[in-house]
Amino acid sequence: MESSYSPKLLISFIVILISINPSSHQSLPPLNPRLTKAYIALQAWKQTFTSDPKNTTLNWYGPNVCNYTGIICAPSLDDPYINTVAGIDINHANIAGSLPEELGLLTDIALFHINSNRFYGSLPNSFNHLHLLHELDISNNQFSGTFPEVVLCIPSLKYLDIRYNNFQGNVPKGLFDLKLDALFINNNKFKFSLPENFGKMPASVVVFANNDIQGCIPSSVANMKDTINEIIMTNSRMKGCLPNDIGKLDKVTVFDVSFNEFVGELPESISGMKSLEQLNVAHNKFSGVIPESICRLPRLKNLTYSYNYLSGESEICVKLDDKDDTKNCIPHMHFQRSSHGCDAFYEHPVHCTGVGCSFVTLPPPPPSCPPPPPPAAYHHYL
């Protein structure tokens, strides 16, 4: 339900009150209309606080909002002679409360950082008025409900961090049409599939870990090759094969898809990821041989492919300083899966088709040698 506040009415009332009683300005905001609106917004917000254990907002009173802890003021972009609230940063304050609709009055803010508090509810619809907002960080709070779709209406948004909350349900396809540089939605309860327009987003970092992503990585990820540096999708129940086009991401330094249900061979094309420093594909169902070209990547520092069903690795891979190949099916290596477990898996080998993220399950391979014929019957005649 939207608040019934009327900003114009409140501002007019303040102006009239000051004109009647000039001494009242000691407890009211100055006649800068930008700061007047900020005063209304911040006071409405403070009214929702039920706990402020560190007294972060102890000095949030009176008209001089630029003196409030965590409030960042700067000259307005359209009028350098008018001071305005340009940002809010009250990270790690452990404040409990909610976000009222009045926060939409802060139309000049460029950053809104409230991570590591105890705010609940969701984002107010009035955030669609924050046209200058570049950075929105509400991570590590107690927000809930569906994805806050109001963020899709913030045209200047570049950094979105909503991780470690209780959001749930679908993630809208329109999110990936935003011109975001960084996107963190990990550690929520989202349940969705990555759409084909995933690759349209010019992000340098995407972290989707610890959600329920019902599907695979679309081949459109290759369209992010000019910007993407880190992809982290660990523990997201993802399936299918890794797309061959993933090798085009030659600026990626961290690629982590561990603790999922990926299958098939590791694409040889990963050798094209020349900037890769950390590759983690552990706890999946990969099979086949680790391509030697992956182990020759020039910047590779950490390679983890434990808990799969890989059947071979080259000497180059064995000699890497920081790698983990345990719990696979690699002959003559220590700490591998049991031969029974490996044989059972390879009775139904999986082959990636090269079309999207699809795969086929092949019939069991024929035995390497035909079985010997049964012994001829022997009759002893007396």
CATH architecture of the largest domain: Alpha-Beta Horseshoe
| Helical proportion, percent range | 10-25%
For this structure, the CATH topology of the largest domain is Leucine-rich repeat, LRR (right-handed beta-alpha superhelix)
Kindly state the number of beta strands.
Answer: 24
- Average pLDDT, to the nearest integer? 89
Distance between the termini: 105 Å
CATH superfamily of the largest domain: Ribonuclease Inhibitor
Which sequence of SSEs, written as H and E, runs from N to C?
Answer: HHEEEEEEEEEEEEEEEEEEEHEEHEHEE
Please tally the helical runs, counting DSSP H or I stretches of 4 or more residues: 5
Shape: elongated
Structural class: alpha/beta
What proportion strand?
15-25%
Biggest sheet statistics: 12 strands, mixed
Strand order of the largest sheet: 1-2-4-6-8-10-12-14-16-18-20-22
Ranges where pLDDT stays below 50 over 5 or more residues in a row are 1-30, 377-382
Radius of gyration: 29 Å
The tally of structural domains comes to 2
CATH class of the largest domain: Alpha Beta
